Every structure is written in structure tokens, then in C-alpha cells.
Amino acid sequence: MSNYNKYSIDLGVKFKPLEIIDISTLIASCTKKWQNLSLCEVNNSVVRLAVIEGEFHWHKHEKEDEFFLVIEGFLFIDLEDKTIKLKPNQGFTVPKGIIHRTRAPSRTSVLLIEKSTIKPTGD
User: Fold this and answer.
1) What does the H/E/C string look like for 5-73?
2) Would you state the torsion angle of the CA atoms of residues 69, 120, 23, 105, taken in this order, to the nearest 10 degrees?
């Protein structure tokens, strides 16, 4: 199986404005090792929930920044020259054009905020 096929990335936005989003229930419903759900749109951005375990491939986004906020677990963001380790309630922005990959040594839940034009697997 290629890297691209092992990820479950749902680009369909699940919630409209004025709807309650229950993050805990969504996290509990995720059964795959790498699951990404598009929750809602805010202006020209999408808020996504990622429930992950393992590592993503190296990639970059030429035109979009990417923000990560850890809800539970630990997230490593590998950059070319260093690794960032995020604990629950910590966030980090990867600027556009920066090559990176994310890794989670155990089941980890992350909120992502990114422009709706982003290709989650990279350019």
C-alpha cells in the first residue's frame, strides 16, 4: 500500500455554522490509524480533526500555512533542521513552503486550521 492510500482524509465539511461540534464524540468514533475529518469552514479556512498514530510522509504546501493544536497525545513535527514536540494544548504553525512531516508515537488527536485550498497530502 502506498503512503497516500494508508491515510483516511475526508474533505467533505461535516458541520454548518450554528451546529455544535462534539470533538470528544468524533475522536471516539475514529477507528483508523490515520483519520482526518473536515469539521467546518471559517472564512476561507477549514478546521480539521486528525486522529493519528504513526507517521505522515515528507511534504510541503506552496501557498498555504498549516496550524496544528494537540488535543490529546503527543505530536512531533519534523522540519529539515529540527523536530518540534507538541503536548496537549500546544500549537504550532508550519509556514507555507516549509517541508515537514508529522509523527505520532501513539494515538493522538489534533485540530488543524488551514486554507480550504490546501491539498492535505502536500503539493
Assistant:
1) HCCEEECCCCCCCCCCCCHHHHHHHCCCCEEEEEEEEECCEEEEEEEEEEECCCECCCCCCEEEEEEEC
2) -60
| C-alpha to C-alpha distances, 110 to 25, 79, 99, nearest whole angstrom | 14, 18, 19
Q: What is the pTM of this model?
A: 0.91
Residue 108 structural domain: 3-115
pLDDT per residue over 41-68, tens digit each? 999 999 999 999 999 999 999 999 999 9
Strand partners, 57: none
CATH number at 79 reads 2.60.120.10
Q: For the stretch 72-85, what's the b/e string if a residue is b when 16 or more beta carbons lie within 10 angstroms of its beta carbon?
A: bbebebbeeeeeee
End-to-end distance of the chain based on CA atoms, in angstroms?
A: 20
| pLDDT tens figures, 27-36 | 999 999 999 9
